[in-house]
Give the backbone structure.
Amino acid sequence: MSLRRILTLLSLAPASLAGAPPPPARDLPTLGPAPASTWEQGWDWTKELLLLRIGDNAFGRVLAALAILLVTVTLRRVLVTMVFRLLKKVARRTTTTLDDKLFAGLEKPSAAFLLVLGTFLALSLLNLQAGADR
């Protein structure tokens, strides 16, 4: 709160306590509706684009399905390269070779499982025809 506002409130306080009518409110000039900013225009255009229909699906659903596939492929690469590399490094330190063979055998199936899971999630997001489910 500014100092001017505080002083104005303090100067009006005794008059309002004495029962005097408050000073008349100043009429502020009314402005018309504010013009839409570039940000608002861009957001409106984006909403229209995302609601654009492609068959039975909105464009936003198709983009979300593609994003799920992209995340799935990226997660698969991270899992295969980083996690299994770390697991193999830990397995090399042990005396048995069972864990080495186990991690080598689990690498490809887990990568395939992630791709199948991502594809399933992406397709379940889309509204497909009944014949496409068979």
